[in-house]
Design a protein that fits this description.
It is built from five helices and two strands; from the N terminus they run αααββαα. It is mostly helical.
Length: 143
């Protein structure tokens, strides 16, 4: 479960990579939006560090992979959405944030360790802030 947050399809590695791609391809006329994606990528890097450290603490190998029933699959750049249309970029970013929140909420409900729950809740809180910021851009550009 924790490893899937690190290197699964809907993971922090995916989000960081997607946000860095978005930062690079968004035109400089949208400087504030570019900066938003860079700042959110930095937040996601902090989350990745926390989750990889947690995995290591739990005696897992914190590679960029996900494991289920002793079958491990490495993270792939094919998980990303390589759209260059600004509206699709924002919609995709919102979808990524919602997916991560839903995944973490599910984990909070089935994990018994209060320390892990606290870590996941902090990440959920940060992701909700990202949604608020992205929604402002969605209102400006998509609707």
């Amino acid at each position: 479960m924790i490893l899937d947050n690190v290197g699964g399809m809907d993971s922090k590695v995916s989000t960081i990579s997607q946000y860095m791609y978005n930062y690079i391809i968004i035109d400089d006329s949208f400087r504030e939006l570019k900066t938003l994606f860079l700042d959110m990528a930095k937040d996601e890097m902090k989350h990745l560090n926390i989750l990889m450290t947690l995995a290591l603490t739990l005696n897992m190998n914190p590679r960029w992979w996900t494991c289920l029933n002793d079958q491990c699959c490495y993270w792939s750049p094919s998980y990303l959405n390589y759209s260059r249309q600004i509206t699709n970029i924002i919609i995709n970013a919102l979808e990524m944030e919602y997916k991560m929140i839903n995944k973490l909420l599910y984990q909070v409900n089935i994990i018994d360790d209060p320390k892990i729950i606290s870590i996941l809740n902090q990440i959920i809180y940060d992701n909700k802030k990202h949604i608020t910021l992205l929604k402002k851009w969605e209102t400006k550009l998509v609707r």
